[in-house]
Amino acid sequence: MIRVGNRKIVGKLAVRSFYADRTRNIIAVIAIALTGLLFTSLFTMGAGMVKSMQRADMILSGGEGHARINYMTESEYTTISNHPLINQIAYCRKLSDSVDNGSLIKRHTEFWYYDDIGLKYGFVEPTSGHKPQAENEIITDTMTLEMLGVPQKLGSHIKLDFTVHNKKVTRDFVLAGWWKSYPGVQTGTILASQAYVQAHLDELKSTYSYDRAETGTISGIIKFAGTENIEKDLEKVVADSGFSMDTKAPNLIKSLHFPGTQLYKYRD
């Protein structure tokens, strides 16, 4: 009975103390709530920043895939892509040696065709408009549009100057869509359609093996079924496909490591 009585007295004293310093206590409660909100916000922002940095690393290293092989011919791409260890592979074809518009001189810009997997893995799916379909349709990032002086408006006219196998070319295109440029990415990307590739197959033959012209070369962004043995899987794909990582071999494939494993094929 004494303990119960004590508890009642303590309770009454606590209530009286709270009302006696009501303003101070309310401020303390608000401060505690704001502190909790602040830490929650910081945690959320931190997680978002980490995710953004990881995404930026993948973008800068060449895409979302586990590996990338550059400078392939059509037949080499077919050989590589048919390997059973490969779960998915993007088809990305270089459409020019360089983009030469004077307004883009301060920002290196490249002209490509990407298939649907390439659009996804390269983080270049249009957020406005649609992927290019007609021969004269292109999509690009917002920074490239800004530097070209082209409004973000579907159907806007774009004149591109570029080099194909050391030959200067100028062609007219229309804007089919665009995506927001990623912070930290210093390279602009312009993408054309499959119809464009088919219409210009003669000029898109790869001659990289003897003159280093990048027009027509194919890059494959690769994803394996899992991530446990990427390097071993990659080595097996290369060897089984008839290529080598020996720096003195004529069919050299050189491996470079980034946030994601990447391959670049060189012919010396």
Describe the structure.
There is one protein chain. The chain is of the alpha+beta class. The chain is built from 8 helices and 13 strands. Strand 8 and strand 9 (167-179) form a beta hairpin. Mean pLDDT is 83; it is low at 255-261.
Quick overview of this protein structure:
The chain has 268 residues and is α+β, with helices and mostly antiparallel strands. The protein has 8 helices and 13 strands.
How much is the radius of gyration in Å?
28 Å
> Can you count the helices?
8
| Inertia-based shape | elongated
State the order of secondary-structure elements, H for helix, E for strand.
HHEHEEEEHEEHEEEHHEHEE
Q: How much helicity do the residues have?
A: 25-40%
Structural class: alpha+beta
Overall residue-averaged pLDDT value: 83
Low-confidence stretches: 255-261
Report the count of strand segments: 13
What is the strand content? 25-35%
The end-to-end span amounts to 96 Å
Largest sheet: 11 strands, mixed
